[in-house]
């Protein structure tokens, strides 16, 4: 398998941890980001300083033209793409369903669902053996919210991640005989700054006692599972899910 990976939402949190680990394992890494150029470029500098190859490409995954440009840039600068991590995702401030409007729903689904579809489309067009590609692997970053529903907090986000679960299963079956494996990870309560964007920076601390392991997870723990699913060690796994949730 080619060792070029595109990681969406790669400038922070799970995406950044995945980029670091992928680089350490020999991947050339394309870090996609939407607006935080400073974090993305700092991560590229960190990776390249260690002797590995990385680039940062700005783009909103919910915009089709940005996605196309992302993949064209990665291919032009790094080579044939053999792996995709659909990690870009957003949530909005905690609230109940009766407070959620259509504009918020459109934003949540545009990034979390449409963005993953568009990126997977571009990856499949390049990887599929039926199109002359050499195969590859896609890992979608879902969430335990898809199973738990996130009541009183992020039911819209949970619903979007439920769509990602269905998407993972369907795409995996669709391209299984084209040399492409499609799997997903479902992180639980992970200590990243996404909680601040939902209005509660201390959410991990509040909820950790509800986790059987009595702690939040680390981004690196999710990255380890992602890299395993991308690797040849997972060569007979497609349409599979790894829950990284401390038993919750």
UniProtKB/TrEMBL annotation:
- Oxidoreductase: present as a keyword of the record? yes
Is Transmembrane helix tagged as a keyword? no
Q: What are the UniProt keywords, alphabetically?
A: Oxidoreductase
Q: Which residues form the Ketoreductase domain?
A: 3-192
Q: Which SUPFAM superfamilies match?
A: NAD(P)-binding Rossmann-fold domains
Q: Which InterPro entries match?
A: KR_dom, NAD(P)-bd_dom_sf, SDR_fam
Signal peptide residues are none
What protein family is recorded? Belongs to the short-chain dehydrogenases/reductases (SDR) family.
The protein in question is named SDR family oxidoreductase
The organism of origin for this protein = Litchfieldella rifensis
Q: What is the lineage of its organism?
A: Bacteria, Pseudomonadati, Pseudomonadota, Gammaproteobacteria, Oceanospirillales
């Amino acid at each position: 398998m080619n060792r070029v990976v595109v990681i969406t939402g790669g400038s922070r949190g799970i995406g950044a941890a995945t980029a670091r680990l992928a680089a350490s394992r020999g991947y050339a890494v394309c870090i996609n980001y939407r607006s935080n150029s400073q974090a993305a470029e700092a991560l590229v500098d960190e990776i390249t300083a260690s002797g590995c190859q990385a680039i940062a490409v700005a783009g909103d995954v919910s915009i089709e033209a940005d996605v196309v440009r992302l993949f064209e840039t990665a291919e032009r600068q790094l080579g044939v793409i053999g792996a995709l991590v659909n990690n870009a995702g957003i949530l909005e401030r905690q609230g109940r369903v009766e407070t959620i409007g259509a504009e918020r729903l459109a934003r949540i689904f545009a990034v979390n669902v449409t963005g993953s579809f568009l990126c997977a489309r571009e990856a499949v067009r390049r990887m599929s053996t039926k199109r002359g590609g050499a195969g590859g692997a896609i890992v979608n970053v879902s969430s335990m919210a898809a199973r738990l529903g996130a009541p009183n907090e992020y039911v819209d986000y949970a619903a979007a991640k439920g769509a990602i679960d269905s998407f993972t299963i369907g795409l995996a079956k669709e391209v299984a005989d084209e040399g492409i494996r499609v799997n997903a990870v479902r992180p639980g309560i992970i200590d990243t700054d996404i909680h601040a964007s939902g209005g509660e920076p201390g959410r991990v601390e509040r909820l950790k006692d509800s986790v059987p392991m009595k702690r939040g997870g680390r981004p690196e723990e999710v990255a380890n599972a992602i890299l395993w699913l991308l690797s040849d060690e997972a060569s007979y796994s497609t349409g599979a899910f790894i829950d990284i949730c401390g038993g919750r």
